[in-house]
Design goal:
The structure is a single chain. By secondary structure, the chain is of the alpha/beta class. It is 28% helix and 21% strand. The strands form five sheets. Strands 6-13-14-15-12-18 form a six-stranded antiparallel sheet, covered by helices on one side.
């Protein structure tokens, strides 16, 4: 059945990644009939003819078990040649660490370009497929709650969220229960405890790493990371019999009626180029932060003068990401260390605080950052250590996305991204880089690579903030439930809605916000649906 025929949908979900997957599963479980519109499809655009063979070659080279039998110089030359190949159609995506694992999981940059403001750089790594970036090989699989302090805001530009940790906890627990997290808890104020399904203790080599880090850097408090493989949320929703999935559906418009209520969406069929549409009284935009914002920008009514919701000046502003610094190298394997293939997602996680002086004003700055330590055996006597540090940018209105006059392959305006670190961002991120270096030395890593500078924004792949939630309709796009201030029934629950970033990976919070919004939308929908029947019964009485 075509998705734009007269199916009686209760809700439309745009996107099927972390936010969209949870939203469609929660909505269908509540009894709603849901249409999911996913921009990706198979085969993937113009890359389909080259992806299959190149992906097999890349997987052969990057597979850690096979890599042990390949001389390092040969392996390095092979990866260099493949990166050159990738730059033909994926000059941006091939910069992503995951490209080497599965180039077809990332978009074709020629079909889906974007622009950056003069003098700026931004790495926008995108995936159009069912499951989104969650199912891209190499995804970190990390899940952490925000801390209460993250939601309260601070004096350094981070706003207070319109809801507290107490209001989010039930949704956190519901998502964690389904994920069946593995890992450890330690009651860290920067990484609050989660509902852990399988509680783990450090292996000997992990315990040795923790001891070495704390001996040299006593302010650090490493814990076992919290991780889980991705769930197929769309398949779970389909089991209800109330889900319709349309792929190749590139949404570019939200439709509204004259009363300020959402009525549906319009999209372009990526295969045929034909324009299609579907109607529903509930729409969830979960296309990823920038894609969701692009849809909202294209849906604006030029005659609107209220300046609320999708017409707020906040739309497109406050771009954030985690500033990234990394290190990779080798360590000797000790007697008793684990030498089998590492479990994907298992790592040591270190939330930390930086206290530095502002380089321009001398003001005392305090900001969080986090580090992940991944260990992968590469033979009987050596193991690879990867250290990645993440430092959250502060939300600033001048960091923004806007629509360009340039069009993509599908005739949709591309985004222009204007995003820069400020001095405070860089001061904390550079302290993080120094800590990454110190941590590598504490672990006696023979360093193969160490960041010389902070990676450009976007490299953290946690871009967010461009349709933020808030308590003031004039300075935010959606309310505490994720519902657009000026459009009843329109929800934004992906990373666009985040008012600020914490030290943590934001995925669990995005999922919790989606579950919470879906519960709100379901109550609203089912309550309204019951009203006519209730009135009819009352009339009969």
């Amino acid at each position: 059945m075509h998705a734009d025929r007269a199916a009686p949908y209760d809700a439309i979900v745009v996107g099927s990644g972390a936010a969209g997957g949870v939203a469609c599963q929660e909505l269908t479980q509540a009894g709603l009939r849901v249409l999911v519109l996913e921009a990706g499809w198979e085969p993937t655009s113009s890359l389909s003819g080259v992806n299959a063979p190149s992906a097999r070659i890349i997987a052969s080279i990057t597979n850690s078990m096979r890599r042990r039998s390949i001389p390092p110089t040969v392996n390095a030359l092979g990866l260099k040649a493949l990166s050159a190949f990738g730059r033909l159609r994926q000059p941006v995506q091939s910069r992503c660490f995951a490209w080497k694992l599965s180039p077809g999981s990332l978009v074709d940059d020629r079909d889906c370009p974007y622009e950056t403001a003069p003098g700026t750089r931004f790495n926008w790594f995108r995936s159009r497929q069912v499951g989104g970036r969650m199912v891209v090989p190499g995804h970190g699989r990390q899940y952490y709650r925000m801390a209460a302090a993250d939601l309260r805001g601070d004096t350094h530009g981070r706003p207070a969220w319109p809801l507290g940790l107490t209001e989010l906890e039930p949704s956190y627990e519901a998502v964690e229960e389904k994920l069946r997290l593995r890992g450890g808890n330690d009651s860290s104020r920067l990484a609050p405890d989660s509902l852990i399904h399988t509680m783990l203790t450090p292996r000997p080599e992990e315990a040795a790493m923790i001891s070495a880090l704390q001996d040299r850097l006593p302010d650090l408090h490493p814990i076992l990371g919290r991780y889980a493989p991705p769930l197929d949320w769309v398949a779970m929703a389909a089991e209800t019999g109330r889900l319709t999935l349309a792929t190749g559906a590139i949404v570019d418009r939200v439709h509204r009626d004259g009363k300020g209520c959402v009525t549906g969406v319009g999209w372009i069929d990526g295969r045929s180029g034909k324009r299609r549409s579907a109607e529903a009284p509930i729409v969830f935009l979960c296309a990823s932060a920038f894609e969701t914002t692009r849809i909202l920008l294209m849906s604006r009514d030029p005659a609107d003068r209220d300046g609320l919701g999708m017409h707020s000046d906040a739309l497109g502003r406050f771009v954030m990401d985690h500033a990234v610094a990394s290190c990779a190298g080798q360590v000797d394997v000790r007697k008793g260390d684990e030498t089998t293939e590492a479990e994907h997602g298992r790592c040591l996680y270190v939330p930390a605080m930086a206290q530095v002086d502002h380089p321009a004003t001398g003001e005392a700055l305090e900001g969080p950052f986090g580090m992940q330590f991944h260990r992968q055996p590469t033979g009987e006597h050596r193991a690879r250590i990867d250290i990645v540090g993440f430092s959250p940018m502060r939300p600033r209105p001048e960091n923004r996305v806007t629509l360009s006059s340039r069009k993509d392959r599908f005739g949709i305006p591309v985004l222009s991204i204007d995003c820069r670190y400020d001095n405070a961002d860089l001061a904390i991120a550079r302290h993080m880089l120094e800590t990454v270096d110190e941590a590598a030395r504490a672990l006696h890593v023979d360093i193969d690579y160490l960041s010389k500078e902070i990676a450009p924004p976007g490299t953290g792949i946690h871009e967010c903030g461009t349709a933020r939630m808030g308590s003031d309709p004039s300075t935010s796009v959606v309310d505490a439930n994720g519902e657009c201030w000026d459009t009843k029934g329109l929800y934004v629950t992906d990373a666009a809605a985040l008012p600020s970033l914490g030290v943590q990976n934001p995925t669990l919070t995005i999922m919790a916000l989606s579950a919470r919004a879906a519960a709100h939308a379901s109550r609203q929908r089912l309550g309204r649906a019951a009203d006519p029947e209730r009135r009819r019964v009352e009339e009969l009485i």
